Amino acid sequence: MPELQWKEDLELGVARMDATHREFVERYNALAGAGPDDFAARLDEFAAHTEAHFAQENRWMEAVGFPGCHRGEHDRVLAVVNDIRKRVAGGDLFLGRRLVEELPAWFANHTSGMDAALAFHLQSIGFDVEREAFVAREDGSCGPQGGGCGCATLSAAPEPAA
Ligand SMILES: [Fe+2]
Ligand SMILES: [Fe+2]
């Protein structure tokens, strides 16, 4: 039975992303260990996780204007998973088992490639994924390249002098 092990090199240093990836591993292992009677239910749970997992990363990419093909890859994988769900719901488990075989290599590649690049970028520009906002650096600058956009400002600013 295929099984995914959580390894230290899967940690990307963005706690919320790492927690989501641990959940991916748990959902995957539940799916890989499912028998014919509960495979469809475990696949539904895996698909629900995957949708939320990808939506979270897509939201962060949109918030920081992250360029590239990462979102498209999420969309493609989700389309495949949902297609296979329909087949499995109809009683055809063959492609479901193929998905179980292919997911570990996909996850290793995706995490060490696209997700690692996103995690590095989020950290380097000071984007706080808990608050989904930019945080000020120690020198007081914040936002991409320290440009200051998107940072919190004083709410009790004095009226500008006439
Ligand atoms: Fe991810
Ligand atoms: Fe991703």
Q: Assign the CATH class.
A: Mainly Alpha
- How are the strands of the largest sheet arranged? 1-2
Low-confidence stretches: none
Inertia-based shape: elongated
CATH homologous superfamily title: Hemerythrin-like
Which band does the percent of strand residues land in? Answer: under 5%
Instruction: Give the integer mean of the pLDDT values.
Output: 89
**CA gyration radius, whole angstroms:** 20 Å
CATH topology: Four Helix Bundle (Hemerythrin (Met), subunit A)
Question: Which key terms come to mind for this protein?
Answer:
162 residues; mainly alpha; Four Helix Bundle (Hemerythrin (Met), subunit A); two-stranded antiparallel ribbon; 2 strands; 2% strand; binds fe (ii) ion
What's the gist of this structure?
59% of the residues lie in helices and 2% in strands. It has 162 residues and is an all-alpha fold.
How would you portray this structure in words?
19% of the residues are buried. The chain has 162 residues and is mainly α. The chain contains four helices and two strands, in the order ααααββ. Helices cover 59% and strands 2% of the residues. The chain has one domain (8-132): Four Helix Bundle (Hemerythrin (Met), subunit A) (Up-down Bundle), CATH 1.20.120. It has a two-stranded antiparallel sheet. The chain binds fe (ii) ion (2 copies). One fe (ii) ion binds at residues 21, 53, 57, 115.
